[in-house]
Amino acid sequence: FTNTLEPRPSLVIPEPCLVTKIMKEQEVQAKLPDSLQNAEFFVADPDLFAKILPQVQVPNIKWIHSTWAGPDKLIKLMKEGNSGLSISQYPILTRSAPTTSPMGWDLAEWTIGQIISKERNFAQSYEDQKRSCWNKEPVLNYRSLRDLTLGVMGIGTIGSCIVRVASNLNMNVLGLCRSRASTHQDCPADKFYITEELPEFFSSCDYVVNALPSTKETRNLLDGDVFKHCKSGCVFMNVGRGDICTEETLLKALHNEWIQGAVLDVLPTEPLPEDSPLWKHPAVTITPHVGGVSFPSTVLTSFIEEYKHIAKGETPPTAVNWENEY
């Protein structure tokens, strides 16, 4: 079930898997095939699968592979009991995540690209070019990456990719995580903070990028007056999930100058409503959730790697912990 993949001869699925049909959302809504009752493995856009799961009986379901990195809507549906399954029957849920795909590196490119764009004021040069104006003054005083501190919220597979790329470009990189566990030893952040140290973390960063998933612990984490702890001139960036804070929280932080700007690839409501004040706010940059796209080849590579582990009876690298929701 996908709006991402297209049927093509180059999509080779490992034996003994048999793909009988790639179904688009319109097809799924029009007619749900009876053969789903016998299906054990599903490759699906999680939001689409969350829509159709309450409509079908899938007693043999054993594994769902998400075409995206963040299957939070599907997790929410399953845990609220709308799936028709008890918790003991929950299938394995895996993600097209950076352990087996390049999505983390894509999001790292988005992050660094946005930082460079703001520091070099490319938007101003673009406007000047439209007016045939040779205007050096607004773009002369920039800061180099080596002079900036980037804070990365979430040191999972995506956050670690961002840390590595930023570190290789000589940025000072700080990581925010749940604990200072030894599992972060391979992540080259210059310093780690835990969630309870969020004010200190914010006060040290020129840019903060959120790469946290949507879980019961992260939803609305930045609401209230948390942004007041930000370093003067700090820019908030979001490639994680939009429910880290509300739109009102972002607008309040901008109005009070707790943050200098916001660069958002994910938002509390998607698509962002046309009447949202974020669209026309001069300090806000919006991209339509395209920082890391699930390309067909990416999804297939991830699926094959996860399948190899499942075929051996092993826990796949990207398996979601239903309790922790990531």
Structural notes for this entry:
The chain is an alpha/beta fold and 326 residues long. It has helices at residues 25-30, 46-52, 72-79, 103-120, 122-130, 137-140, 157-168, 198-202, 247-255, 296-311; strands spanning 41-44, 63-66, 92-95, 149-153, 172-177, 191-194, 207-210, 235-238, 261-264, 284-286. A seven-stranded parallel sheet has the order 6-5-4-7-8-9-10. Strands 1-2-3 form a three-stranded parallel sheet. Helix 3 links the parallel strand 2 (63-66) and strand 3. Helix 2 packs parallel to helix 3 (72-79) and helix 4 (103-120) packs across helix 7 (157-168).
Q: Which structural class do you get from the secondary structure elements?
A: alpha/beta
Number of helices: 10
Q: What would the average pLDDT be, to the nearest integer?
A: 86
Give the tally of β-strands.
Answer: 10
Beta-strand percentage range: 5-15%
- Report the oligomer: single chain
Order of helices and strands: HEHEHEHHHEHEEHEEHEEH
Radius of gyration: 21 Å
Inertia-based shape: globular
Major sheet: order of its strands? Answer: 6-5-4-7-8-9-10
